[in-house]
Design goal:
Blueprint (H helix, E strand, L loop, with lengths): L16 H14 L7 E7 L5 E7 L2 E3 L2 E7 L3 H8 L2 E8 L4 E11 L2 H9 L3 H9 L9 H14 L10 E15 L7 E7 L5 E6 L2
Antiparallel strand pairs: 1-2, 1-5, 3-4, 4-7, 5-6, 6-7, 7-8, 8-9
Helix pairs in contact: 4-5
Length: about 200
């Protein structure tokens, strides 16, 4: 975990946290980490009740981190009430984490359509069949609904009107590297404007 090298100063760090994140994500993929795009998404209601769940990162670019969900789900309802959220990526074998905090908005229809079309057929059917976060009377009812939906769409499965992508525009991005002595390395980027970031070193 501790490679013995001295951590760089803030001035020596990459000025672009998105480019740095992409390199870390690529490294996690190359390391063969299962579901390397998985992250914990934390949201909170307007009354400040928090909740968290795992999601898959679909895309990342200069404008933010994109994930998708049923727009009637609990997470979607909370994002509508309180459009602020956090993502946590944890690649344990590499002893690395990335924390992202920012504001969330609906992605455009083209992005939602592209992401939905890339899902496996079964996952597209499930998006229609499952009223995410709602109480169901039995598993059998849910599976029957899935089969009925499969029959309804024998070929193309269109994107449901209640399903879409979201973009988290980061305000802060923190890169964490573990050390065996617990003197971990924490480097936080704070957005100043559209193209500039301030880099801060944090005590572990």
């Amino acid at each position: 975990m501790n490679d013995g090298r001295k951590a760089p100063s803030a001035a020596a760090l990459d000025a672009d946290p998105i480019a740095r994140f992409r390199r870390w994500l690529s490294r996690a993929e190359q390391a063969g980490i299962p579901d390397h795009t998985a992250a914990t998404l934390a949201t909170a209601s307007v009354g400040a009740t928090p909740s968290a769940r795992m999601v898959l990162l679909k895309e990342v670019d200069a404008s933010g981190f994109i994930f998708s969900t049923n727009r009637n789900s609990r997470k979607a309802r909370e994002l509508k009430e309180n459009p602020r959220a956090a993502l946590l990526f944890h690649w344990q074998p590499l002893h690395r984490q990335v924390r992202v905090e920012g504001t969330v908005e609906d992605a455009d229809a083209a992005t939602s359509n592209r992401i939905f079309a890339a899902r496996p057929r079964g996952a597209r059917i499930s998006a229609w069949a499952s009223a995410q976060s709602e109480i169901i009377d039995s598993r059998e009812t849910l599976e029957l609904c899935w089969k009925e939906t499969e029959a309804r769409f024998p070929r193309k499965v269109p994107r449901p009107p209640f399903w879409g992508a979201y973009r988290l525009s980061p305000v802060t991005i923190e890169f964490w590297r573990g050390r065996t002595d617990r003197l971990h390395v924490r480097e936080r980027y704070v957005r100043l404007d559209a193209g500039n970031w301030r880099v801060e070193l944090l005590a572990p």
